[in-house]
């Protein structure tokens, strides 16, 4: 099939262009992008396209890169197509961002192309990826252990980026360029064996073609297309399932998942749901590694009430009482830290926890009626049973506590577990303590030792507010 007809078929198959589209054509000066430019010129009238050439000099190859830019400018001029040619210090960008050279170049290139497209109001950005690039990408991702998403390779269309050459091979591109007398330049870095893609291009693909299947490029490209179609279907299923399992979302802080609903799905869909959850929580489209997903899978299946997994960068997954929680851990308080001595009477600000605590003492007969109403942020105690000083602190190893109405003291940790207080928040819970120990787990329980009873003569009233609620 003639080259132009093949490309026309790809454009139609994937609905790459609408009539009258303005298209930014990424042109490096290499054979793929130069062939792309010329085939789009041939199809320009058919689609009434407005073409604009864009070239980014990455600053890697000195005079060689300058010659690439000059070739692109000259070609655009000969074809009477407007062009944007810029130079960018990609080596410096890679160093600052701690990226590999190829990743930095790719990021800079797409940012440049999208920037040009936005500036001129373009509808599409066309790049010169071929079926051979597709085959290389599939093998790279296979060697790295990717799943179906990675093995789906390079999508023909992503957003406004389109790849009209994605179904023609490098050999076919070279033949089109030779027949058309299209000038092009070869990037010398393509011969460097330090890059995995170059090794696959120069060694692995020729070996597979010679020893196993001469149509290996087409086979891999076709496999990628099939996997992309499967992936699209499964992605829709996983998104629908995600809506059913998520209980609540606090953006960037916490996601709560119904564990029973999650475990009702088969293992394949469960992996996908977990992957989407991590992407949602981290805000990183690259997604978690295979090992991270497997660790999460084990966490969801683990028997018992609670367990925790460190996801790195202050993020945790926790199985807790029928829920899977993704949380971002605040900087922990030092164990047992005394945060403030409580002013009685008075108002005390507890800055580390963002709280303000008000305390007053009343005679039993003078206790206002509204102060008798129990709330999670307010409590009252038998003042005579409290031994000064009174402090606001966080938990400490060995803390004990006798919940009101229960016989005997228990480990504070056990009380937290029984009250289903998430492990990730236990170090952030304010405690009121006196010389004899903890007497109020703020927002949760009061100690039997200090409860108000018929013999109480003085009442200590304490109210705790988050700073944001203080007027």
Mind sketching the topology for me?
Layout: H1 3-13, E1 22-26, H2 31-47, E2 50-57, H3 63-78, E3 83-87, H4 90-97, H5 101-120, E4 124-126, H6 131-143, H7 148-151, E5 157-158, E6 161-162, H8 170-180, H9 196-211, H10 216-245, E7 246-250, E8 254-258, H11 259-263, H12 267-282, H13 290-301, E9 306-312, E10 315-320, E11 323-328, E12 338-341, E13 346-350, E14 355-363, E15 378-382, E16 391-393, E17 400-401, E18 410-411, H14 412-418, E19 431-434, E20 437-441, E21 445-446, E22 458-466
Helix pairs in contact: 2-8, 4-5, 6-9, 6-10, 10-12, 12-13
Brief descriptors of the model:
five-stranded antiparallel beta sheet, 471 residues, Phenylalanyl-tRNA Synthetase, Chain B, domain 3, six-stranded mixed beta sheet, alpha+beta, 14 helices, elongated, 3 domains
Written description of the protein model:
The protein has 471 residues and is an alpha+beta fold. It folds into three domains: 225 residues, HUPs (Rossmann fold, 3-Layer(aba) Sandwich), CATH 3.40.50; 78 residues, Uridine Diphospho-n-acetylenolpyruvylglucosamine Reductase, domain 3 (2-Layer Sandwich); 132 residues, Phenylalanyl-tRNA Synthetase, Chain B, domain 3 (3-Layer(bba) Sandwich), CATH 3.50.40. Helices cover 39% and strands 22% of the residues. It is elongated. The N and C termini lie far apart (76 Å).
């Amino acid at each position: 099939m003639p080259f132009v007809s093949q490309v026309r078929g790809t454009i139609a198959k994937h609905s790459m262009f609408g009539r009258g589209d303005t298209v930014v054509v990424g042109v490096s000066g290499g054979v793929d992008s130069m062939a792309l430019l010329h085939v789009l010129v041939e199809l320009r009238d058919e689609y009434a396209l407005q073409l604009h050439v864009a070239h980014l000099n990455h600053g890697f190859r000195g005079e060689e890169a300058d010659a690439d830019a000059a070739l692109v400018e000259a070609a655009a001029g000969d074809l009477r197509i407007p062009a944007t040619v810029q130079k960018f210090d990609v080596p410096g960008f890679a160093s600052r961002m701690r990226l590999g050279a190829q990743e930095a170049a790719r990021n800079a290139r797409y940012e440049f192309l999208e920037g040009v497209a936005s500036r001129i109001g373009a509808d599409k950005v066309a790049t010169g990826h071929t079926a051979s690039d597709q085959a290389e990408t599939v093998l790279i991702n296979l060697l790295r252990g990717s799943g179906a998403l990675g093995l789906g390779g390079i999508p023909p269309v992503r957003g406004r980026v389109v790849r009209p050459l994605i179904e023609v091979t490098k050999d076919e591109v070279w033949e089109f360029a030779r027949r058309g007398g299209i000038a092009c330049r070869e990037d010398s870095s393509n011969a460097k064996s330090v890059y995995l893609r170059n090794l696959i291009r120069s060694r692995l693909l020729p070996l597979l073609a010679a020893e196993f299947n001469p149509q290996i490029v087409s086979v891999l490209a076709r496999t990628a297309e099939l996997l992309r179609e499967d992936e699209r279907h499964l992605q829709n299923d996983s998104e629908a399932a995600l809506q059913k399992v998520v209980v609540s979302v606090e953006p960037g802080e916490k996601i709560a998942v119904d564990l029973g609903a999650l475990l009702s799905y088969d293992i394949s869909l469960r992996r996908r749901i977990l992957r989407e959850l991590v992407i949602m929580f981290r805000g990183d489209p690259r997604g978690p590694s295979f090992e991270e997903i497997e660790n999460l899978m084990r966490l969801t299946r683990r028997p018992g009430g609670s367990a925790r997994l460190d996801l790195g960068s202050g993020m945790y997954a926790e199985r807790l009482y029928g829920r899977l929680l993704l949380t971002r851990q605040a900087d922990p308080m030092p164990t047992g830290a005394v945060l403030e001595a409580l002013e009685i009477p008075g108002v005390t600000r507890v800055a580390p926890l963002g709280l303000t605590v008000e305390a007053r003492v009343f005679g039993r007969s003078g206790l206002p009626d509204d102060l008798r109403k129990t709330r999670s942020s307010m409590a009252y105690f038998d003042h005579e049973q409290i031994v000064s000083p009174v402090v606001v602190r966080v938990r400490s190893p060995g803390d004990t506590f006798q919940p009101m109405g229960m016989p005997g003291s228990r480990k504070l940790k056990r009380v937290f577990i029984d009250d289903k207080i998430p492990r990730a928040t236990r170090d952030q819970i304010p405690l009121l303590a006196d010389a004899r120990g903890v007497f109020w787990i703020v927002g949760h329980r009061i100690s039997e030792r200090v409860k108000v009873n018929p013999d109480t003569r003085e009442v200590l009233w304490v109210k705790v507010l988050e700073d944001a609620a203080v007027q």
